[in-house]
Amino acid sequence: MKIVKIPFSSGSLGKNNGCEKAPDLLVERLRKYELNEDGKSVIFEVSEVKTDKNNFDLTFENIGNEEGDIFIGGDHSITYSCFKSMKGKNKGIMIFDAHPDLEVGTKTVDHESYLRSLIEEGSVKKENVVLIGVRNWSKNELEFIQRNKIKCISMKKIIENGIKETAEDAMEIALNFSDLYLSIDIDVLDPAFAPGTGYKEPGGLSMRELLFFLQRISKIRNLKRVDLVEINPEKDRDDVTLDCGTRIISTFF
Hints:
Radius of gyration: 16 Å
Number of domains: 1
Number of strands: 8
Largest sheet: 8 strands, parallel
CATH class: Alpha Beta
Distance between the termini: 7 Å
Order of helices and strands: EHEHEHEHEHEHHEHEH
């Protein structure tokens, strides 16, 4: 298992500065794990992408040149290059996030628009996108979802349908892809479990509920890459968000 650290927060446009510190702290905690919750050994190698907070193009190019299994940010803009560089004839992306990240972008890809950029430039088919846990969106984002028929399993739908049924539906969709990319924005969790992030949205998943999803998805045969983003140690309380992040990463061994 190879973990890639991406200490980059410039894609948050100043709204989550500090999340670049998460990769080092998460890997440090992960080294203390002997076994994960399923009893599997947590053994890994680590590399780090060279980033430049003032040069998005260079940073994204460096990210795209890095091979790995688990990518740790950093802000959600890193997913843009991590996904684009993943090979696959019919690849898809499943994203756990409180927000759809489908805003109209600026000149550079950022953490609010990276997914829209991937779709509009043809890097991922719109039917190969699955959003889970969304509970806050702008008018532009909702219109984009509806117009393009993006699969969006909101928190409201999760509660209405139940965790188990939702997880089964998500896995069924994911198995249609040749290669699956899984992206986890820590703000999919309720702030009670993950206060250390830039965009706190009440009414999210509990840590146990998220693990229920991830422990099943981790066993999907076509899962190729995972990322974890938007943890901000500077906004954390008693390191609870870092602890959640470490447990999340350990699930994929």
